[in-house]
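Per reviewer request, we include the raw input and output of the structure prediction for the construct analysed in the revised manuscript.
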Amino acid sequence: MATDSESLLSSKVLALSQSVDEPACAAGPPEALSEAPSSSDVPSLDKLAKLESNSEGSSPRDSPQPLLLQKDGLAGSSLPDDVQVFQGDWDDEGVHFYQAYNDVIADWAVEHQQFGGPNFNPTRMTWIKPSFAWVLYRSGYARKHNQTRILKVKLSHASVAELLSACQCRTGGGGSKGRVQWDPERDLMSGDGKAPRQMLRRRAIQIGLKGSLSELYVRSVIAIEDMTDIAHRVQAAHMAADTKLAMSQLLPELPVERPYMPCCPEPVLARLRMMSGGGPLHKSKRKGKKH
């Protein structure tokens, strides 16, 4: 059952998702789609909807969006256990990701609308996250050393597909240049001021890139926005006596994250656990690093 804080945000998500009749890759601009895999490689709505059928006589849904919303706990759970849901803030132009940097790198990036400058290394391992709550957790609401600025970075749909197609799921053997992890999601609408609340039944995607993939990411940036101020205000709201009221007042400024299906071939989506066939996620025996 969804909590009150989840309901506040989910009502905003549902309002958008009900108007979406195609997966995100089909909603992208023609120039982006021309660089992405062909439509024959992209999972159809029927294939996604059939995952929810409870019997052979069940009719598939008209849109995958309600189906995906059920997976994340907003309306129950009906997707297979081996399928994870990519949730993010996206539009026709592209998808937003979050990263935390120090002031010097962030100032340069915001001013030039791209990454660079003397202190930036374009080939080092970097982790991008479409979950705003998760980057708040990772950076301590932009209070940790060298993570005092949170940037919202936009990539085209084609670039996201290209990066993900070169990644491996960590639980499936990892990846040398590209890695996907599914970590417990964090609740943007509630927390104790030290970290957003952990959500055990939902997972958020983390994408690790290094070497040539990190360079591709840097070249693919469409826009960069500084989200540090809203990060600090979310922390203050989480520390307020009435967190629900404080967060409801911030709601118009918060990112709207909803299910997203990358424009990747079905084998890639299965490998990354976004479609059936990749196997269930298993907890690592080693204590994983925080990204």
